[in-house]
Amino acid sequence: MKENVKATVRNILTSYLEQNSLRKTPERFAILDAVYSISGHFTLEELSDKLNDEERFPVSRATLYNTLKLFLELRLVIRHRFQGSTKYEACYDNNSHSHQICTVCGKVTEFKSQKINDAIAALRTRRFRKDGFSLYVYGICSTCQAQLTKQAAKRKQAKTQ
What we know:
The chain is α+β, with helices and mostly antiparallel strands. It is built from 6 helices and 5 strands.
C-alpha cells in the first residue's frame, strides 16, 4: 500500500481519537498498519496471524473486533459477507468496486468496470449523497464450470454404456 495512504489513514485515526478523548494505543495503530499492508480481502484470523507472525504484535480477538468496528465507523475498512464468511478490506482509497463470487467454490475476484462506475455516478439519488459502492455478482467461475462440464460428460458417458 502506498505510504502516503498509510500516513493519511493514521492521521484520520489520530484526529478522531484526539477529538473524542480516546486513547491512542499502540494496538490500534499496529492493526491499522497491518490492515493497510494486506492486499485485498482478509479475515479476522488472517489479520490476527499477520500481527502475530509478521509484526510480532499479538492482540486479543476482542481488541481486533473492537478496533475493526472503529475502523468501519471511520470508513477506513469495509466489511463484506461472502457466502457464510466475513471478510474485511482496506477502503480509504478505493470506495467503489465490484466482486465476482463463485457459488460453487466461494472464490471472490474483484473486477473493475468503467461502465458500472459511470452508471453509478450518473444515478440520481434523492436526499442521499453517494460515497462509493460495492457490487456482488454471483455465478460460477471457469474452474468450477469446467469441473461441472467434465462431471456431466462422465455421467452422460456412463449412461450410454
